[in-house]
Amino acid sequence: MDIGSIISIIVTSLMAMVPIVLTSVGAVWSERAGVVSIGYEGVLLMSAFFGAIVAELTGSGVMGLLGGIATGIVFGMLHGVLTVYLKGNHVIPGIGINLLALGVVPFGILAYWGTAGQHQVTVTLWSWQTKYGKISPMIPVTIAIAIITWWVLFKTPLGLRVRAVGENPEAADALGINVEKYRFWSTVYGHALAGLGGAYMSVAWLGVVQKAMSAGRGFIALANMVFSGWNPLVALIGGWLFGFFDALATWLAPLHIVPGQFILMLPYIMTLIIVAGIIGKARPPKWDGRPYKRE
Amino acid sequence: MKSSISDLIAAFNFKALLESLIAIVIGFLIGALVLLAFGYDPAVAYSALFGGALGSTNSIASTLAYSTPIMLTALTFAISARTGIFNIGAEGSFYFGAIAAVIFTNIWANMWFGLAMGILLGALWSLPAAFLKVYRGVHEVISTIMLNWIAWFFVFWLVVGPYANPNDPNKTIRIPESARLPLIGNTNLSIAFIIAIIMAVLSYYLLWHTVFGFGMRASGLNPRAARYGGVDPNKAIIWSFIIGGVMSGLGGAMKIMGEPPTYAISQGMANVYGFGFDGIGVALVGRNHPLGIIFAAIFFGMLRAGTALMQIEAQVPLEIIKVIQGIIVITIAVPGLYDLVKNVFKKG
To answer: Among candidates A229, A267, A282, A247, which has minimal Cα distance to A27?
Structure first.
């Protein structure tokens, strides 16, 4: 393994890190406020689809990313209404969102572009082409989002209130904090970041819309969130680690040392091992996933 | 027997049934809007859909055949859900059940042996998530999704590698004739459908009429109280995973052993993919009740069977039914749906 392949693995891992880190950081914020969602997988997939449509309609990659964020916001609001205001179960809406994505995306690819299963996106976000692979401006943006989210969550009064409604909503309520409002907008923020990550996949990274392109990243991001101990900074490092396994699999695949399928399993096996090793020490916010009803 | 029938009615909550029906109606209405938005005619599409699902003996047989695998994967989800677990792992056990049927019927061409090995591999594949949950506290949604992907790649390797058909390398070798499930009458429907119904009834009996099943439901409702009552919730969780794996493994095996004319896993594993996920939708529409699941599975089977005619007569991509299913599940997630709809009608 020469220095060139090491650099290209690192470049690929940084590109692969973006959707996982964005989704993990969003999920950390939402769960710190007490709202669990397993619908990020579906949000990634649907925002990859809608983000590509917006990018092609407007001729702008940036607008495509915004389209992805808008998709995330819509589903975040849906999840927020069901769980925060109507006090419903936190897991079932996500199952529905994931099932919906499995229909909307293949149906949409066929009905909108007239191709089956896959569409090559014609308008993509600018990226820096190097001999080690392309480098997207979304890499520094993602790092900045993780750091800023950490800073707001742990160093500002806003973050304190968000953590309060997830840790002890009764006390927060007694202090005059509007628990429902904070939980709702935290859910929206979490899904919006996943939406950005999804649009990045189609508009900036892979340049295609495929019916199964999220490939479990929404759930890997949740595993990474647990791994991080609900901390955006650790989620940034963990997300890079998961991106690294992704890149390693991409690099190993053409070498044919073992059948390709075993290499493609790698990110999922590593996720299981890491999550199995870390849990027990990890403690979720106390009111995570529990609806809060005022007495 | 008399008491069990009144139990059955009590367990089959009327309000829950109405909520499922409301969700189905909303699913079709929003589905119609999506069709209109993409320039299709919903009336033509839906009439072709139902014609294709119920129009003839063959289409009814096809509806029931499609309902079979998802009835079993729905039981996987529902039994775990009653034990307080979100088991999304039916998909992985289904792949293993399917490949087990291919492998072992080609060792000993016996139907019962094939089914038994499908059940065994399906159940074994459910164990990692069970143990990770009980001993390491790993959330089952994360572990089962990862295990589904690992199962996908592993079984895919078996399908294109060691068990590929030398004459048709995109498919696996076929189930020997003497190990195939008998067909009912002159249709393409195999006895898999009847076995699935029996499994649903057995699940109902297990959950509501045995001490064991009571323990499972008790730990699902309140693990701490169950522990006081002498039930070990961890044991209940492990068993719920195993029974779930049995159902999906059986479903996978029967999908391959009872599906004419292929009797093999097809290219890209297309004839075994997605049944675990569809089963979750079936379980939720059937309100996690084994008897509700029988009807919900037939309903979902109807949608799937109808897509063939819908594609021909209305040129609508078959994925529209997945859009409708997703909307139905999201609608079911609306708490107090029944009261909500009742209030809307009162005001209107």
So the answer is: A229
What chain A holds in terms of domains, given with CATH numbers, is 3-278 (1.10.3470)
Q: Which of A97, A99, A288 to mutate to test the interface with B (most CBs of B within 10 A)?
A: A99
Cβ of B277 within 8 Å of Cβ of A102? The answer is: yes
Q: Residue A268 is nearest to which of B150, B274, B322, comparing CB atoms?
A: B150
Question: ipTM of this predicted complex?
Answer: 0.91
CB atoms B319 and A107 under 8 Å: yes
CA angle B345, B346, B348 (to 5 degrees): 60
C-alpha distances in Å from residue B49, one per residue of A257, B32, B45, B66, B301: 48, 12, 6, 14, 11
Q: Are A273 and B129 in contact (CB under 8 A)?
A: no
CB contact under 8 A, B332 and A96: yes
Which residue range forms the structural domain that includes residue B249? 66-302
Inside any domain, residue B58: no
DSSP states of B299-333 as a string? HHHHHHHHHHHHHHHH---TTHHHHHHHHHHHHHT
Mean pLDDT across chain A:
92
Q: Is residue B34 part of a domain?
A: no
List chain A residues with CB under 8 Å of B86: 38, 91
Do the Cβ atoms of A219 and B38 come within 8 Å?
Answer: no
Q: What is the pLDDT of residues A106-154, one digit of tens each?
A: 999 998 998 888 999 999 999 999 888 899 999 999 999 999 999 999 9
- Rounded CA-CA distance A177/A166 in Å is 12
Token digits for B298? 């037939």
How far, in whole angstroms, is CA B265 from its chain's centroid?
18
| Interface touch A216/B149, C-beta < 8 Å | yes
Question: B200 in a domain, yes or no?
Answer: yes
- C-alpha distance from B178 to closest chain A C-alpha (Å): 32
The total domain count for chain B is: 1
Identify whether B158 is part of a domain: yes
Cβ contact (<8 Å) for B141 and A262? Answer: no
Pick A268's closest partner by Cβ from B146, B284, B321.
B146
Specify the pTM: 0.92
Please check the confidence at residue A192 and state whether its pLDDT lies above 80: yes
Does B273 contact A at CB distance below 8 Å? no
> What residues in B contact A74, CB-CB < 8 Å?
none
Alpha-carbon gap, residue A29 to A96, rounded angstroms: 22
